[in-house]
Amino acid sequence: MNRIRLLAVLAALTLLAAACGDGDTGDTTATTTAPETTAAGGLADLGGRAVTVAVENAYTPFNYYDDAGNAVGWDYDAVGEICARVNCVPEFKEVGWDGMILAVSQSQFDMAADGITITDERKEVVDFSDGYIDLEIRLMTLVDESRFTTLDEFKNGAFVVGTQVATTNYDKAVEEYGADRIIAFDQFPLAVQALIAGDVDAVIIDDTAGVGYVGESADQTKLLEGSLQSDQLGFIFPKGSDLLAPFNAAIAAMKADGRLQEINDQWFS
Amino acid sequence: MTTDVEAIDAALQHRAERGRFPWWLVVMLAIIGWLGSLVFFDERFTDARTFILPGLVITIRATLFAFALAVVIGLVAGLGRISRFTPVRHLCITYVEFIRGVPILVLILMVAFVVIPPIFEAVGLANRLSFEMRAVLSLALIYGGYIAEVFRAGIESVPPGQAEAGRSLGLTQGKTMRYIVLPQAIRNVLPALGNDFISMLKDSSLLTLLGVGEITHKSRLYSGSSFKYPEAFLTITFLYLCMTLVLSLVVRAVSRRLDRG
Question: Are residues A159 and A52 in the same domain?
Answer without folding.
Answer: no
